[in-house]
Amino acid sequence: MRLRTPTLVATGMVAAIGLAACGGGSDGGSGSAADSSKCTNKIVNADAKKVTVWGWYPNMAKVVDNFNNDHTDVQVCWTNAGQGQTEYDKFQTSITAKKGAPDVIMLEAEQLVGFEIQDALVDLAPLGANDVKSNFSEGAWSDVSQGDAVYAIPVDGGPMGMIYRKDILEKYDIDVPKTWAEYAEAAQKLKDAGGPAFGDIGSNIPAAVTALMIQKGAVPFQYDLSDKLNISIKLDDQATKDVLNYWGDLVKKGLIGKEDQFTTDYISGVVGGKYATYVSAAWAPGYLSGQGVGEGDDAGQFAAAELPQWDESNPVSVNWGGSTFAVTTQTSDKQAAATVAMGLYADEASLTDGWKTQTIFPLNQTVLKSDEFVNAKIDFFDGQTANKDIYVPAENAYAGATYSPFTVYYYAQLQAQLVKLFAGQTTGDQAATDLQATMVEYAKSQGFNVR
């Protein structure tokens, strides 16, 4: 989803998520007492149970109306409590106060564990979540689960690929790279020919860098909610060092840019042909077109390709981003809230609007397997069937990832290391070593035993 991405790189930390903060409990939820006058949307069936929802999808008003028009037993009372980190801060405040949370909340998948460990989210498995499990890929379901427990319902995701400019690659006779070795070779060839930068690796995309580390074989965190006290942190492994050294070397040689992404200057560079490629996710076409990329002289110049691989014979699919709906433990009616979490943005009208407007890359298999979606000719890609060629296979091959209870803090520390790395002030090896030491110290300070 185009508005999701910047929140993934927020450097502000959600209030300390240590064991002292766990076991928040509930003093009763807001659902049964929802005041219709405080809803952003219209309540269609006034006598139905009302469930409060926080969410920031751009087409949320339409999605809520679709749900309310389709249900007589339960109604959504929606509020936009802010996007990403703004919403998370408000949710954290309500957890600490044990009041003020909505019944259902939109959360990025990588943020779930940090709230699960505080007992702030309801296990949806006993409430029927497994009835919709078949609607999602194994990886998408894994991202919202802990063992047999299910803490959210997936909505959209970010299977990664690579966008490239056809005009630049054609002008300089460069083949689309299938491996990271070929990517580096192409970048050198483009520079030697006097062309633009081959790509960009801004320090403000730690979520993407983490995904690329995982693609190489890194397992930054291993954590099981059933064993709250213990966590494994492996950030100084060879795979992580290899990835950081790879991108640091490309920056050092001047083969790619190091500009922060999601900025006006960066977008101007994309529009102006400053970069030949953009390593990104399935939501990127919507984000870029929303910023005016692909119009005027840029029209028809972009195409999508598979994410380059470290080992072409053993491809690995990774994910950047993804949003869900979770039920909070402050709800007064878990079943009604679960009905909303499972049904909101799950109907055909909402899903169709979501993907056609490029608001989301849907994870629901009813869409991913539909001819209309799979064979859609994407205008941004000059009619290329990018869903069929790139993004649907990448999503179905994604195996899921394990996130830590302190994702925001980790991203802030990785971002700090990337700033130093791209400024030539450290090496990939040293950055990984320092990141490991920082995260181990932090985890211990929060009461964890680090394995």
UniProtKB/TrEMBL annotation:
InterPro entries: Bact_solute-bd_prot1, SBP
Gene3D superfamilies: Periplasmic binding protein-like II (3.40.190.10)
Secretion signal span: 1-20
Keyword annotations: Signal
Species of the source: Kineosporia corallincola
Protein name: Extracellular solute-binding protein
